[in-house]
Task: structure prediction
Amino acid sequence: MSASPSIAPSDAPSAAQDFQVRSLAGTFAAEVVGLDLTKPLSDDDFKRVHRAHLDHHVLVFRDQQITPAQQVAFSRRFGPLQIHVQRKFQLAGQPEVLIVSNIKEKGEPIGLGDAGAFWHSDLSYKERPSLGSLLHAQILPAEGGDTLFADQHAAYEALPETLKATVSSLSAEHSYLAKYEELRARSPWRPALTQAQLDEVRPVVHPVVRTHPETGRKALFVSEHFTTRIVGLPEDEGQALLAQLFAHSTQPAFTYRHEWKPGDMVFWDNRSVLHLAAGTPDHLPRKLYRTTIEGDQPL
Ligand code: OGA
Ligand code: MN
Result:
């Protein structure tokens, strides 16, 4: 009889970790405490994290001392990663990591400094917008630099019934270019886009109310940053409706404010929430690493 095959360490099943998922009081978000993402997750642990992500929309993993490669590996468990159209701010050797930072070295920005200046869902201007994004804190300012999240299931559910019915039959256009010139005026480093980049970000049309592909819950899917018009409505009527939806969807009652702590990695569901960078004083350095997971075409 042949000897039983030896199991190479890389084939050994990952051990379960002892971690907790705790709701953050008074909000929809939750923190994950005691999980070490430098280690590969066991299938059961992955299932718990996945379930918590669907239930809470925003998960805050505390005390993560992970490398960019480990962030990429963890992110990939949820789907293929998307590469941002601003190639300039990819981390060297790790194109799936986008540097989000207000730091300048020799007068040159090292990262996307104005990411999240308006409420948005990442990459909603793509045919297949993002499933979720992960930001891992690298350098945090002594004050400011919070990120706000707004629950778009709650926003949808709180609409008056007649408005729910109206918006449920509408579609809207999303465009990366919607606020590009305005942002360029504020952030002179933003380059004029090449034709190849313009082709990559051609406007797309998505339903105003989308159904989450995993939970079946409905959510509003429009945002100040990227939604330009409602398809099939006269321009003024469409703009008035969008303004009403933008104001409604980001009310404090639907939002969670994340105050970053060292080691935080925040993983949000772009199908369920909008987010906004609350702002950082220019003289206080802030740097985070972002990975972005591709999602489905919204339905
Ligand atoms: C982003 C983003 C917000 C922030 O990286 O997608 O919107 O607070 N960031 O940095
Ligand atoms: Mn964003």
